Amino acid sequence: MGGQSTDEAMNAIGAAHWTWSSGERRLVVHAAPGGHLAHLDGAWSLPAFLALMEGLSRDLVASAFEGLSRDRRLDVRASLMDGRSVHLIGAADLEGVGRGLLIPREHAPELPAFSAAIVPVFQPIRRLSDLSIAGFEALVRFRDLSRPGDELLEAQPANVDWRSVAPVMLGHAIRVLKALRDQGREVFMQVNFTAADLAHPDLVEVADDLIASAGLPDGVLRIELTEQAALRDLDGALGVLGALKAAGAGLVLDDFGAGHSSLVWLAQMPANGVKLDQALVRLASGPRGARIIEGIVQVIHDLGMTVTAEGVEDPDLARIVADLGCDHVQGFAFDHPLREEAIDPIF
Predict the structure, then answer these.
(1) Interatomic CA distance for residues 317 and 295, integer angstroms
(2) What pLDDT, on a 0 to 100 scale, did the predictor assign at position 2?
(3) Which residues of the chain carry a pLDDT beneath 50?
(4) Contact 137, 120 (CB under 8 A)
(5) Which of 13, 113, 184, 300 gets the highest tally of CB atoms within 10 A of its CB?
């Protein structure tokens, strides 16, 4: 799947990502060369950065950065001295370092135009304590519009623009999640983002608008991201993820244990949960694998995150990972992906 680099995508909409260190009281802005905010690129003291703001915006921005913490997010619209309006949005990571995006307000996000070629299916995620439904993962399937019938394909047809997939799936996921919660179902919904998706900070604006318009509580719409995708551009990814967190999205680290730097990423990602990779989960039936998983689960719980064992195809394995402390299970042992109309009967 092709795509732009983060710098190219940021340049396309004039965005930048930032890092805030409250201890050093220093703001570092990374703006793509030649972009609308290129003059902000570099390290700033807070007073120097505030001097770039129009008078009424200075107090708003100062309060936002001074109050940024793991429990408080930054989401403020401000005006620069040159007359431009910007959206500063972000959140603090597990170490208290703030990260996020700076997006010109001249850029209007395009809400997803639903395509009949992009069809969501939903795989249940169950609580291991009682096997009740905790949430769903929205998975993309495709319909070949040039052929009759209703067969869904996993491979993406050539006539579907890859850039349309993430916003359309985001819209479907939020629509179905809102409907379920309006029925009194206390569930979450997870949607996959790729490295190419993270290179498009305008998705943050789309998520912000969709979550707000649906009236969803914070963290019930969750973005799944693989470590391998994020590590292509760690600083840029953390900026986008901090902004998504501030928009009200939860974050889940997918395929944990499959990569070589998972612990580095785990330490910095402001996540709600972690999904153990299927290959790691399969080791749970052996004594060494069980010890490793038990230790990993303990660390993740100590960081305040939940643990999902994915790819579980055997109920006996589900019982083993439950004994090792995992919170949720996902896999063919209990459920296959469902069309939207098949969701209600499983409750």
Answers:
(1) 17
(2) 45
(3) 1-2
(4) no
(5) 300
- 3-class DSSP state of 183: coil
Residue recorded with tokens 């689960």: 297
Question: Which amino acid, residue 313?
Answer: E
HSE (CB half, 13 Å, CA atoms) of 52? Answer: 15
Amino acid identity for residue 258 in this structure: A
Give the pLDDT confidence of 178-224 residue by residue, as tens digits.
999 999 999 999 999 887 787 777 788 889 999 999 999 999 999 99
Q: Are 133 and 123 in contact (CB under 8 A)?
A: no
**Tokens standing for 340?**
């939207």
Q: What is the pLDDT of residue 109?
A: 63
Q: Which residues contact 158 (CB under 8 A, 6 or more apart)?
A: none
Q: Which residue intervals of the chain are DSSP H helices?
A: 6-13, 46-50, 55-66, 162-182, 195-198, 202-214, 227-230, 234-246, 262-268, 278-281, 287-302, 315-323
Residue 298 CB neighbours (<10 A): 13
Q: How far apart are CA 202 and CA 285, in angstroms?
A: 44
Tell me how far apart the alpha carbons of residues 338 and 256 are, in angstroms, rounded to a whole number: 24
**How many angstroms separate the CA atoms of 40 and 85, rounded?**
14
Q: Measure the CA–CA gap between 273 and 291, rounded to whole angstroms.
A: 20
Q: Say how far apart CA 101 and CA 202 lie, in whole Å.
A: 10
